Amino acid sequence: MQFAPVNSNGTVGAWSATTSFSTGRYGHTSVAYNGYLYVIGGYNGTALNDVQFAALTGPAARAAYSRLVDLGSDQLIGSFQYTGAGPGGITNLTYATAPGSTGILSRVSVPCSISGYSYNVSQCARYFWVRFDMDDTASATADDDATFGRNSIQDFTVTYSTLQAVGDNVSATKATSVHLAWLAVSGATSYNVRRCTFTGDSCSPATIANTSNLYFDDFVLGNGSSYWYNIQAVNGSCVSQ
Known about the structure:
Shape: rod-shaped
Number of helices: 1
Number of domains: 3
Distance between the termini: 68 Å
CATH topology of the largest domain: Jelly Rolls
CATH architecture of the largest domain: Sandwich
Largest sheet: 5 strands, antiparallel
Strand order of the largest sheet: 8-7-9-6-10
Order of helices and strands: EEEEEEEEEHEEEEEEEE
Strand content: over 45%
Radius of gyration: 31 Å
Structural class: mainly beta
CATH superfamily of the largest domain: Galactose-binding domain-like
């Protein structure tokens, strides 16, 4: 028994031999399922009432695997990794992120991918999408599944966290201005400086600056007033408390 792939342009590819049946037949029913071809009944001069099957080792092929992960809300995506591959390997790896507010994916192509390697993302997003392009045709022995296997993705992991707050790691000194300084937060690309003036027991903070520095000098102040400051870590749409 022989089988051949149907090419993308509609032509038939090269024929490959597999297990032979005990007798030639016609007028039978054929079913391909789960890597096997089943032949049911038919005639070879007399009626046949048996079922025979042969393994389809599968010709070399190209395929793609993609997955969309919804984290539920904007999170700081640190990295991702996968395990898998095979004789031809992953020919192209593309990933994309999108914040919940827009849902627009920003794609990044990775020309060389390695199973088990942790790929740094460091982006704030709710959605994470990945696509693996796989190619068995790159291997001269790709027809031999039993020995060499197939390209596959066994596992896929996204590591993410909530952007941490600056917290109490802020110092302030007063001369002609208030000089604020704070410690860096992992994953932050900038910081919001928020300020409010106490009126009685109430205070409504507003962002007065965004900076990538770890300090800020506030000059627009009046004597005899009490001020409250808060520093927020920022990465895209991720903003800490």
